[in-house]
Amino acid sequence: MNPTIYKIAPRDLWREAEEKGVFEGAPVDHADGFIHFSTAEQARETAAKHFKGQDDLLLVAIDADALGEKLVYEPSRGGALFPHLYAALPLSAVRWIKPLPLNDDGGHDFPEMEQ
């Protein structure tokens, strides 16, 4: 599968994770019982569907291989396989963090992403 996966997170929530040393998920993750991620191919659609118009977001690149067997790719939107983590995210797995600014259309301008 894809060695880099992505999490879109509000800046404040991510800063809390940095203080704790671990990301335990957003409210939607807690409700579903796992942390939602997207592949590079899925991230733009995820942002458009779940984060349209939201400002002050971060795009967090994660080393999928560092998450081990707790990372599972499961069918979701349209049957596509999405990465789900059934554990807290150790910050040691983070490759980079970049801002995800809003553009004039209410969508987000993405940085270059690793496949």
List the helices and strands and how they pair.
Blueprint: E1 4-10, H1 11-20, E2 22-23, H2 27-32, E3 35-36, H3 40-50, E4 57-63, E5 71-75, E6 81-85, E7 89-90, E8 94-100
CATH superfamily: Protein of unknown function DUF952
Number of helices: 3
Approximate shape = globular
CATH architecture: Alpha-Beta Barrel
Enter the CATH topology name.
ADP-ribosylation fold
Alpha-beta content class = alpha+beta
Largest sheet: 3 strands, antiparallel
The CATH class is identified as: Alpha Beta
Element pattern in H and E: EHEHEHEEEEE
Intertermini distance: 10 Å
Our count of domains comes out at 1
Rounded mean pLDDT score:
94
Number of strands: 8
Describe the structure.
The chain is α+β, with helices and mostly antiparallel strands. It has one domain: Alpha-Beta Barrel (ADP-ribosylation fold). It is 23% helix and 32% strand. It is built from three helices and eight strands. The chain has helices spanning 11-20, 27-32, 40-50, and strands at residues 4-10, 22-23, 35-36, 57-63, 71-75, 81-85, 89-90, 94-100. It has a three-stranded antiparallel beta sheet with strand order 1-4-8. Strands 3-6-5 form a three-stranded antiparallel beta sheet. A two-stranded antiparallel ribbon has the order 2-7. A hairpin with a 5-residue loop joins strand 5 (71-75) and strand 6. The protein is globular. The termini are close together. The relative contact order is 0.27. The mean pLDDT is 94.
